[in-house]
Design a protein that fits this description.
It is a single chain. The protein is an alpha+beta fold. It contains 5 helices and 16 strands. Strands 4, 5, 6, 7, 8, 9, 10, 13, 14, 15 and 16 form an 11-stranded antiparallel sheet that branches. Strands 2-1-3 form a 3-stranded antiparallel sheet. Helix 1 runs antiparallel to helix 2. The chain is elongated. About 5% of the residues have low confidence. One of its GO terms (molecular function) is zinc ion binding. This is Tripartite motif-containing protein 16. Pfam families: PRY (PF13765), SPRY (PF00622), TRIM_CC (PF25600), zf-B_box (PF00643).
């Protein structure tokens, strides 16, 4: 490019006016301005370009992570909706069957009562008709007797004919029990009113709306917070509990004194919680060193060196393995290395030479389980919730949170 004023090559950059100039411009119009060669300016801008590019790449990685997380949330939402529809259909079918059964029972009860009352009434009708016939017969005999001229016959017959026949109790009303029909009708009416009121209040719709909310912020997750307590009968003897049994520390080679118990992990430094989690549950822990953050069926083996006892190495458990340098996920002895790079708590520096991962502060980790939807998710908890890993499966038993604490000095704290 040529300077239009001096017809010279533009090879100088004026920082003051932010434009390219020629050498003669530096002693004329741009005298005393901050000027550098185009090459120097290029070098400086090249550094800025790298910084901008790095910022864009980090933003792309985060947006791709957000995109993946949203896609997983959509799929999880669809699965939850499908499960909710199936459960609702099943429950409503059972409810309809229950109502039909109650209707049939009420109808049968009324019919049985009707049959009993009518049968009793027909017996009374028969007795009354018989009594009327007897009375008419005696009345006719008395009429005939009144005309006899034989005094002896009159006196002998009158004694037997004047005695009244056995009378049917007219106060015994066989239909007095029909008044109980009012109670049946009132019970059915109350049931109908309760169902109508329930539907008018839209309780079901309100509950569906609440259950479909997908947690996004930490406050969203904390709505499902679950306080955990450690099962002292499961803790391995190389683990020490402190701070009211809220902190687990590896004490190898120091052995703790715990009584024998069939539920205790006798080889691996692991412990389970006492509470099972169901529905949607969330909890947080702080950790350091080398630990496993896990969920497990209660049926996991506790004795011996086999994989059936190790969190994540069998089909009974799922485990996020955490260390100061890496994360990985294990289930059924299949390990998946995760592109997550922990930030050093001491220096605040993330070392990621490949630039393929996401950097997270590993001081606090959140775990979210949606048992019905079959999702298990791990998050790095700080000002924002960063997804570390999520898995979709089908849980067939209640889940128990568990922790493996390995290497001397490693620890886990229940928050």
């Amino acid at each position: 490019m040529i300077c239009q004023t001096h017809d010279k090559l533009l090879e100088v950059f004026c920082r003051t006016d932010q434009k390219f100039i020629c050498v003669l411009c530096t002693i004329d119009e741009h005298k005393n301005h901050d000027t550098v060669s185009a090459a120097v300016q290029r070098t400086e801008k090249q550094k800025q370009l790298k910084d901008t590019q790095r910022s864009f790449q980090q933003r792309i990685q985060q947006r791709e992570k957000d995109l993946q997380q949203l896609r997983e949330a959509v799929q999880s939402h669809k699965r939850s909706a499908h499960t909710a529809v199936e459960d609702s259909e099943r429950i409503f079918t059972e409810l309809i069957r229950c109502i039909e059964r109650s209707r049939s029972e009420a109808t049968q009860r009324i019919r049985d009562q009707e049959k009993t009352a009518v049968s009793r009434a027909e017996e009374r009708l028969e007795r009354l008709e018989q009594e009327i016939n007897d009375l008419r017969r005696r009345d006719a005999e008395l009429e005939q007797l009144s005309h006899t001229q034989d005094h002896i016959h009159f006196l002998q017959s009158f004694q037997s004919l004047s005695a009244p026949p056995e009378s049917t109790d007219v106060n015994d009303n066989p239909f007095s029990s029909l008044s109980s029909f009012d109670g049946v009708r009132e019970s059915v009416r109350q049931l109908r009113d309760k169902l109508e009121d329930f539907c008018k209040e839209k309780k079901i719709s309100d509950r569906v709306t609440l259950s479909n909310i997908v947690p996004r912020t930490r406050n969203d997750f904390l709505q499902y917070s679950h306080r955990l307590t450690l099962d002292l009968n499961t803790v391995n003897e190389l683990l020490r509990l402190s701070e009211r049994n809220r902190v687990i520390t590896d004490t190898f080679p120091e052995i703790q004194s715990y009584p024998d118990h069939p539920d205790r992990f006798d080889v691996y430094q692991q412990v389970l919680c006492r509470e099972s989690v169901c529905g949607r549950c969330y909890w947080e822990i702080e950790w350091s060193g080398c630990v496993d953050i896990s969920v497990s069926y209660k049926s996991i083996s506790r004795k011996g060196l086999g994989n059936e006892c190790v969190f994540g190495c069998n089909d009974q458990s799922w485990s996020l393995s955490c260390s100061s340098s890496s994360y990985s996920f294990r289930h059924n002895n299949i390990q998946t290395k995760l592109p997550i790079k922990p930030i050093s708590m001491r220096t605040g520096v993330c070392v990621d030479h490949s630039r393929t991962g996401v950097c997270v502060d590993h001081s606090r980790t959140g775990v979210c389980v949606d048992h019905g939807a079959g999702t298990l998710s791990f998050y790095s908890v700080s000002d924002t919730m960063i997804l570390i890993h999520t898995v979709q499966t089908t849980f067939t038993q209640p889940l128990y949170p568990g922790f493996g604490v390995y290497d001397s000095g490693s620890s886990v704290k229940l928050c």
